[in-house]
TrEMBL record:
This is DNA-entry nuclease. Gene3D superfamilies: DNA Methylphosphotriester Repair Domain. Residues 112-122 have a biased composition (Basic and acidic residues). Residues 156-171 have a biased composition (Polar residues). Keywords: Membrane, Transmembrane, Transmembrane helix. The chain crosses the membrane at residues 6-24, 36-52. Residues 124-142 have a biased composition (Low complexity). Residues 112-179 are annotated as: Disordered. The keyword Nuclease does not apply. The lineage of its organism: Bacteria, Bacillati, Bacillota, Bacilli, Lactobacillales. The keyword Transmembrane helix applies. InterPro entries: Ada-like_dom_sf (IPR035451).
Length: 208
C-alpha cells in the first residue's frame, strides 16, 4: 500500500510540474485545458501527500505502541525472572543448610560410635586385668592337691587277704590279686575260687 501511494505521488508531482511549466510558459494563459489539468494534478498530489503523512503517523503510532507493549512485557518478564532467581537462591541456601546439618549429625554419630568402641575396649581390658588378678590370688590361696590313689587302691573292697579271684560282671574280665583292676565296686564283683572256674563262667583274664 505504501509503495502504491509513493508511486502515485511521484506520478502526480511529475504531472503537476509538467502542466505547471506548460501553463506558465503559455503566452496566452487562456488555455483552460492546461490550467484545469495543472490544478487537478496539484490537488491530487496534495491529497496523496496528506494521506501518506497521515498513514505514516498512524503507522508510527502503532509502532510506538508495540514498542511500549514490548517494553512493559519485557519489564514484567524481568521481574518474574528476578523473583524466580531469588526463590532459587533461597531454596539453594536451604538445601545447603540441610546438607550441613545432616553432615554434622553424621559426624556426631561417628564420633559417638568411636567413643563407645574406645570405652568398650577399655572396659574389656580392665575386666581381663581383674580376671588375671583374681586368678593369681586364687592360685596363691589354693591348697596343695593330694595325690590321687593308684588304680590298685580304687574300689570299695579289698580281697588281698582272701586271695580270691574277682571278675567284673560288666566287662566279663577277671583279675587275680595284685593286678591293676583287682579292687572294684562290690556291686560289679563276681568271686571265683580258681581261674578255671572264671574261664568256665565265660570270663577272660585281664592283661595287667
Amino acid at each position: 500500500m505504501n509503495f502504491i501511494l509513493k508511486l502515485a505521488e511521484i506520478i502526480f508531482i511529475i504531472l503537476t510540474i509538467y502542466y505547471g511549466v506548460k501553463f506558465f510558459r503559455s503566452k496566452n494563459r487562456r488555455g483552460q485545458g492546461i490550467k484545469k489539468r495543472f490544478l487537478t494534478s496539484l490537488f491530487v498530489f496534495v491529497l496523496l501527500f496528506l494521506f501518506g503523512n497521515q498513514s505514516k503517523e498512524v503507522k508510527s503510532s502503532t509502532t510506538d505502541n508495540v514498542k511500549i507493549v514490548k517494553k512493559y512485557v519485557g519489564k514484567d518478564k524481568y521481574k518474574i525472572a528476578k523473583k524466580e532467581h531469588l526463590a532459587l537462591l533461597a531454596k539453594k541456601a536451604k538445601l545447603t543448610k540441610q546438607a550441613d546439618d545432616t553432615q554434622d549429625k553424621k559426624d556426631d554419630l561417628v564420633a559417638k560410635k568411636d567413643k563407645e568402641k574406645e570405652d568398650a575396649g577399655r572396659e574389656q581390658a580392665q575386666q581381663a586385668q581383674q580376671a588375671e588378678q583374681n586368678q593369681a590370688q586364687a592360685s596363691q590361696q589354693k591348697p596343695e592337691s593330694k595325690p590321687e590313689p593308684s588304680p590298685a587302691s580304687k574300689g570299695d573292697m579289698n580281697t588281698a587277704s582272701s586271695g580270691q579271684i574277682v571278675g567284673n560282671k560288666n566287662s566279663h574280665i577277671y583279675h587275680v590279686p595284685g593286678q591293676r583292676g583287682y579292687n572294684m565296686n562290690s556291686s560289679n564283683a563276681v568271686y571265683f575260687q580258681s581261674e578255671q572256674e572264671a574261664i568256665a563262667a565265660g570270663y577272660r583274664k585281664a592283661k595287667v
